[in-house]
Each structure stands twice: as structure tokens, then as C-alpha cells.
Design goal:
Zincin-like; three-stranded mixed sheet; 3 domains; single chain; disordered C terminus
């Protein structure tokens, strides 16, 4: 692997009004609030293996700019449409359809590099500031509608709020689409980032051409990515010209890239259709990576619940595949779902010790412990992980389940409340903390922490209600945007 080249990012001084009217802290808060909406809506793809890979790839690109202090989080959206988008505050989403369209890791990296540059250049903040008055009017109307719908206090009110939010979000989206200048700036800086991180610099132009080709075969509306990031012959020509000035660089795709694409392919269609797709690909040698094709077959068989054949194909995979956390994880799942719970616990336990930062394994091990009835062991492990990943929502939910199985009501409701807070459901979080505060099965320290957290949540809700119509409406009201801002 080529060692990444570190380069200073020299950004133009544009008299950045976005940093005076819309601070980095406000950008981050807005991005976090949108992410909460994504968690609650189900649009966020809660697949740790896919998201871990995107973060590793994305952070390889951000690491080459040591002067950029922005924190980034990369995540997948399970959607076959070709799209990627940057949210305020450093959150970058990628649709599974775009991951599948990319034929090389460098092509996927070129998209992430482009989106990273939108963030480092504060394009979202500039657009929000430029459209401040019209967005404020839209968001004020949205706030009134949501509060009115919720006043009903029932599921119909929540459904109405969701429908209103979705419709309003489309209007806001069109108001802040990137300008042509933003796109060219993101292309230029994204190319520098791609080059410095050691990827194939021809990939940016190649992927733009692939997007254009994909558009020709789509009936009806233009793919979302091309509406938000219009690909022109001029942009392609400029990307080709930049690459022409660089010597040829052969870059080998990582096994992670191939495994993630095979995993996503195993999710498509009916389970038996996915099995047949991989059977045919292996029989006809139509694959980019043999290990990934075999892995995809095992994943498809697992989804089809054909455990006998899954064990057989897993044995074939492990004869030739190198050690890898995704292979450990799928092996553990074959054991767990076929009834070998003890074998799964051993496999997951050994794997998480070897790969302590792989979130799929961090989730899988306590799941297996819970299935074995080892609830106290599961709770202990999850608490240890929460000390490392305190803001991880799925871990909070696992803790709630483990303590509920132990009949520890105070701790169970506390962690359930944290899970709701992670989703942005502050009312649900407060309800859970109020129940936890009334439980009598915890100690003084737990009760004190619960009381402190409950008061903080109540203040946050009160501040939101006050700010929705107050003089600070811009900084707080924009946090109600419940959609994917590109």
C-alpha cells in the first residue's frame, strides 16, 4: 500500500460569512439533530460492517489534511438510488446503490473526497446563511405544524408530523442545493485529497462517466446524485486533465471493499434469488474477488436459513480466506442461528478480543450471551463497551435488554432512555428516565445520575420550545430540519 502523503490544505479566503452567522458548533448541532431524525426514520443503515468500512475509507482521506480539525462520521443509507450527501457538521451519507455502482475502491473514495470537501469548505453553512430568511419562514411553519400535530398526543399526530416534515424537507432541500461553484471547488479539493491518500486519481473522471452512463438507462427522473451534483462534460474534462498531469498509479482494492459490496449484494431481492446470483457468479467466474464471492454466498445462504449448506460453504471459504473480522462475524452468525450458541460465543469472544473496535463483533458477542441466558455477563460486557463508546445507541439498547432480563428496572429504563435520546425522541427518553427515577432497585449513585440526566433532558426540551419562536430562532429552529440536506 502506498503511504499517504500529508499535504496542507490551502483554502481560499472567501470572507466566510457562514462562520459568523452560523458557527461550527451550530453546524455540528444541526448535523447531529438531522442524524437523530435519520436514526428514528429508519433511513440510516444500521449495519456496523458497512459503516465501519466507510469510516475507515473516509478517515484515510481526511487524515491527509492535518490542519483540518473537523470531525467526520460516514454512514450508509439502504437505498438502491445512486446518491451521496454531506450534512452540516461533518456527517456524510452514502446510498448502497452508489457503493454498488463503484467498480473500484478509488471510485468510491473519489465520491467521499468530493463530499468531504463540501464539509471543509462549509458549503452547507454558506447555503443556509444565503437562504436564511426563506428557510426561517419554512422552518417556522414546520415547527408550528409539528407542535400542533403532536398536541393530539396519539399515533395519528405523530404520523401527521412525519408527513409534514417530509414534505417541508423537500422544499428546504431545493433551497440549499449546491451551486456550480461549490461543485467545482469540491472537485478540485477532492482530487487533491484523493491523490494525497494514495488512490487512483483517474477514478474521479471514470466514476463521473459511469454516472452519466447510468443516467441513460434510468427511465423518468434523473438519479438524485445527478440532480444534486450535476455531472457535465466540463467537469469530466477537468478531472481528466488533472489526472493526466500525474504518473500512472496502480492501486489494488482492499478485501474490505469487495466484502462489503458482496454483503450488500446478498441483501438484494429474495433470499433464494441472492443465493442463485452468487452460485452463478462463482460457477461462471464472474466476480472481481473470489473470496468476496464465496463470502456473499454464505451471507445469502444464512439469509435464506439454509444452515446446512451455509456451514459447508463457510468451510470452503475459510480454507482459502485470510483472517478477517467480517469472516469471523459471519462464522459466528452461522453457528448462532443454527443453534450452536456455545460455539458462537467462543467465536465472537475470540474475534472481539482480536478486533476490539469492530462494532459488528461488539454487538454480536453480547447478543450471543443473551441468547444463552448469560444476562449478567452480557450486561457487564456492554457496560465496558459503553465506557469506550458512550454515545452508541445500539449499545444502549443492548444494555437495556440485558438489565431487563436481569429484572433490574432502574438500569434497564435508564439505558432505554438513552437509546431514545440517541434517536432524538426526547419525550420518550424523559418518560423512561422518569420510570427509572421511581424504581427502587438501584443504588444512590445510579439514582443521582438518573436525576441529573433527567433534568438535562427536560431543560433541552424546554429550550427547544422556547427557541422555536424566540429571537434566537435561526440557530435553534434550523435544528428541526428532519431530512437529508445535500
Amino acid at each position: 500500500m502506498l503511504l499517504p502523503q500529508v499535504y496542507p490544505q490551502r483554502l481560499p479566503d472567501l470572507g466566510d460569512v457562514s462562520q459568523t452567522d452560523f458557527s461550527p458548533a451550530q453546524e455540528r448541532k444541526l448535523g447531529e439533530t438531522i442524524m437523530q431524525k435519520l436514526h428514528a426514520s429508519g433511513e440510516y443503515m444500521n449495519d456496523p460492517e458497512v459503516n465501519d468500512y466507510l469510516n475507515e475509507l473516509g478517515h484515510r482521506l481526511t487524515a491527509v489534511s492535518p490542519d483540518v480539525k473537523q470531525d467526520f462520521q460516514f454512514f450508509a443509507v439502504y437505498d438502491p438510488q445512486i446518491n451521496a450527501f454531506a450534512l452540516p457538521g461533518g456527517f456524510i451519507g452514502v446510498n448502497t446503490g452508489l457503493i454498488q455502482l463503484a467498480q473500484t475502491e478509488s471510485e468510491l473514495a473519489s465520491v467521499l473526497a468530493h463530499e468531504i470537501s463540501h464539509v471543509t469548505q462549509h458549503h452547507m453553512a454558506r447555503a443556509l446563511v444565503a437562504q436564511k430568511d426563506s428557510i426561517l419562514m419554512s422552518l417556522a411553519g414546520l415547527a408550528v405544524a409539528i407542535l400542533a400535530a403532536r398536541a393530539g398526543g396519539n399515533s395519528n399526530g405523530d404520523a401527521a408530523a412525519g408527513a409534514i416534515a417530509a414534505t417541508q424537507a423537500m422544499t428546504i432541500q431545493h433551497q440549499i442545493n449546491f451551486t456550480r461553484e461549490n461543485e467545482y471547488e469540491a472537485d478540485r479539493l477532492g482530487f487533491q485529497r484523493l491523490d494525497a491518500a494514495g488512490f487512483d486519481v483517474t477514478a474521479m473522471a471514470t466514476f463521473m462517466q459511469r454516472l452519466q452512463s447510468a443516467m441513460r438507462f434510468v427511465e423518468g427522473s434523473v438519479p438524485t446524485y445527478l440532480r444534486d451534483h450535476p455531472v457535465t462534460y466540463e467537469r469530466i474534462a477537468e478531472a481528466q486533465a488533472r489526472a493526466a498531469d500525474h504518473p500512472y498509479r496502480q492501486v489494488v482494492d482492499s478485501l474490505d471493499f469487495h466484502l462489503v459490496r458482496a454483503l450488500l449484494r446478498s441483501y438484494e431481492g429474495e433470499p433464494r434469488q441472492a443465493v442463485k446470483w452468487f452460485d452463478d457468479a462463482i460457477a461462471e467466474h464472474k466476480y472481481n474477488n473470489a473470496t468476496a464471492a464465496q463470502y456473499g454466498l454464505v451471507a445469502s445462504l444464512l439469509r435464506a436459513r439454509d444452515f446446512d449448506r451455509a456451514k459447508k460453504e463457510l468451510a470452503t471459504l475459510e480454507k482459502t480466506a485470510p483472517e478477517h473480522p467480517m469472516i469471523d462475524a459471519i462464522a459466528g452468525h452461522v453457528m448462532l442461528e443454527s443453534g450452536d450458541v456455545d460455539g458462537a460465543i467462543k467465536r465472537f469472544g475470540a474475534a472481539v478480543a482480536k478486533y476490539p473496535n469492530k462494532m459488528q463483533l461488539v454487538y454480536d458477542y453480547p447478543e450471543a450471551l443473551l441468547k444463552a441466558g448469560r444476562n449478567a455477563d452480557a450486561a457487564k460486557f456492554v457496560e465496558e463497551q459503553l465506557s469506550r463508546f458512550p454515545s452508541d445507541g445500539p449499545l444502549q439498547l443492548l444494555a437495556a435488554r440485558a438489565y431487563a432480563a436481569e429484572n433490574k428496572q432502574m438500569l434497564s429504563h435508564r439505558h432505554q432512555g438513552e437509546y431514545y435520546a440517541w434517536q432524538g425522541n426526547l419525550k420518550g427518553a424523559i418518560d423512561q428516565f422518569e420510570i427509572a427515577a421511581k424504581a427502587k432497585d438501584g443504588d444512590f449513585y445510579d439514582a443521582s445520575e438518573i436525576d441529573t440526566r433527567l433534568r438535562a433532558l427536560q431543560r433541552e426540551v424546554a429550550d427547544q420550545k422556547k427557541s422555536a419562536f424566540g429571537r434566537q430562532g435561526f440557530s435553534m429552529t434550523v435544528e428541526r430540519v428532519p431530512a437529508q440536506l445535500r
